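Work Package 4 report. The design task specified in the project plan requires that, given a folded chain encoded as structure tokens, an amino acid be chosen for each position. We show below one input record used in the internal validation round.
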């Protein structure tokens, strides 16, 4: 299936970009209270992007297929149940659709615009065999798009198997690293399967936010980095050495409680 290219006039891009800046005075104090750890580094790219973490352009897959979402640029996930701060939203999967021409209109609800308003970070694709163009797009609680999206990802579904889709999404956390050895700065991606992510300040039951603990091997105190505004990745630049990483999902209604067993990983920083 041929998907037409997207050509937006500059004026429309400017208008869409303006939608990104939304008022969130109720969260201003919470934002100000968040302090970056000295090991946190600025992302190499200043632009924000919603993206697939386990799917790339040209992939051939079999369905059902569990596809996972990422979010960069310091943006966070905010379910639609309560307002989120500025620079937040919930994911949408566009199937064989270009970006909307008008970013001031709410996204429709149908099979080509799939909404994840509870704070989900994944979904199971059940597409029939064929070629598809997929795209991620972030939008606010009113489903108005942000200027935060992925590039078109063209995939081919080679066949549809008899696997039960429900069996693919199992509750748990995972840490994404581009290899066991890293040079500063490097990205650490967070993922929650069959669990919902939200801002702590939203106070939504059965949701959580991420906390990453990096413990240096044989020296120094662990670094504890908390992400109460729904962020799902961080760029780090710690001193050289070996580290143990632990990712937790903290209950948004009970800061002393975790919602699931932690994910663990090790990394060597050169």
């Amino acid at each position: 299936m041929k998907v037409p290219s997207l050509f937006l006039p500059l004026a429309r891009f400017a208008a869409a970009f303006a939608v990104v800046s939304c008022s969130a005075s109720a969260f201003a104090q919470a934002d100000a209270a968040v302090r970056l750890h000295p090991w946190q580094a600025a992302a190499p790219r200043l632009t924000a992007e919603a993206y697939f973490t386990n799917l790339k352009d040209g992939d051939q897959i079999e369905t059902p297929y569990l596809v996972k979402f990422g979010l960069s640029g310091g943006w966070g996930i905010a379910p639609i149940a309560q307002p989120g701060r500025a620079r937040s939203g919930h994911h949408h999967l566009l199937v064989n659709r270009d970006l909307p021409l008008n970013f001031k209109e709410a996204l429709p609800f149908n099979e080509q615009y799939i909404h994840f308003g509870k704070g989900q970070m994944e979904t199971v694709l059940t597409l029939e065999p064929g070629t598809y163009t997929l795209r991620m797009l972030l939008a606010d609680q009113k489903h108005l798009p942000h200027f935060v999206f992925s590039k078109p990802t063209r995939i081919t579904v080679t066949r549809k198997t008899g696997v039960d889709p429900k069996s693919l999404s199992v509750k748990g956390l995972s840490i994404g690293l581009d290899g066991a050895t890293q040079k500063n700065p490097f990205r650490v991606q967070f993922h929650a399967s069959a669990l919902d992510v939200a801002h702590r300040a939203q106070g939504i039951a059965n949701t959580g936010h991420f906390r990453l603990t990096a413990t240096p091997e044989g020296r120094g105190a662990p670094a504890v980095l908390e992400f109460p505004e729904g962020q799902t990745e961080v760029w780090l630049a710690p001193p050289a050495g070996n580290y143990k990483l632990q990712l937790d999902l903290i209950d948004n209604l009970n800061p002393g409680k975790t919602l699931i067993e932690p994910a663990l990983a090790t990394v060597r920083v050169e």
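The two ends are 46 Å apart (CA to CA). Validation will be extended to a larger panel in the next phase.
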